[in-house]
Design goal:
The chain is an alpha/beta fold. It is built from 12 helices and 14 strands. It is 36% helix and 24% strand. The strands form 4 sheets. It has a 6-stranded mixed β-sheet with strand order 11-8-5-6-7-14, sandwiched between helices. The radius of gyration is 20 Å and the shape is globular. The N and C termini lie far apart (43 Å).
Amino acid sequence: MPLDPCHLTPAASLNRALLAWDDSATGPATDVTANSLLSAAALGEMITRFRSILRIDSANGALADELNVCLDSPDEPIQAVAERIATSYGYRLGRLLAMLRSGDPASRAARVDWDDSYWDHWATISRVCLGGGLASGRLGELIAKSAEAVLSRSASGSSCAVAVAAYAPLLPLIGAARSVPDGAGSALVLDIGHTKVRYAMADYQDGALISLRQLTSVRAPEADTSPSAPGGALGVAKALADLVAAAFAGNARHPIPGDVIVAAIATYMDGGQPLPAPSGRYSQLRIISADLSQWLSQQVSQQLRRPVTVRLMHDGSSAARAIPADPGTAVIMLGTSLGVGYPCPGLALRPVSPALRVSAY
């Protein structure tokens, strides 16, 4: 199926992209996946190699925060090692981007689920915006600088800029907030990831997004959602409904006048239903109902005793809604795994106020 940047399917994923990689620790060059090089776990492995120098006790999910502390350390050896890790990670990202933009015959042959439309689209990309937790702070800046340097030396040329987006970790929340229908003075928006679920209250003034007030994040529901684990998917779905209802009801001090909740979720969607995918906890939730959004709406409405509509959207596409709609831009989210999205001109989205305020609730 050809690429439709505005309606992505699991084929759009960058995690399965293959790169020829020569690692002295593993021997001769072999084809490895982008996910194995650029996931949070991959960054964790890079940090672990130098943990004694960095004086990091653990690499347990706060990777960006820990590495950013090291990057700002007055201890020169610690700072130098942290910079080496950030630059090396950026080099890996740059290699991936160079491969995507060049579309060489070997890369095309290795990606049998991509037809020419995918490669043709990436050849038009002139700007890559980075988001996600791993793109925060100085770490994100060094990753972007290193990746762009690789692109400038590659056969694909230097016509592709790499930059960290404003509010990089919050792009899916901002995109969800921009997707709330007109009329609401405030709304609850979510970013349902594989590691954590982020919440925020979005406030509007004269129709524009004026503030995003973050609530405390919670751990994502964990369960075996494989077909061989009966009840696993239903348990995750019910846990998501409980999380949404609890966040909504927990803000009685600040009533939410709207009745629409927009949630970015880490799976590819077709309307209100997850698409089948070779992996991913949330894609398996399609077995719960023919329309997961509608099912969640009913569950949450019952708990709150008021009609509420839950709208689900692919998190990468939601992130792309947070930036200007330039068709020559791609958004890559750096987190638990790689996410991707492409801005789509012509969508009816809330404008973002130049005076946007982001704060803790």
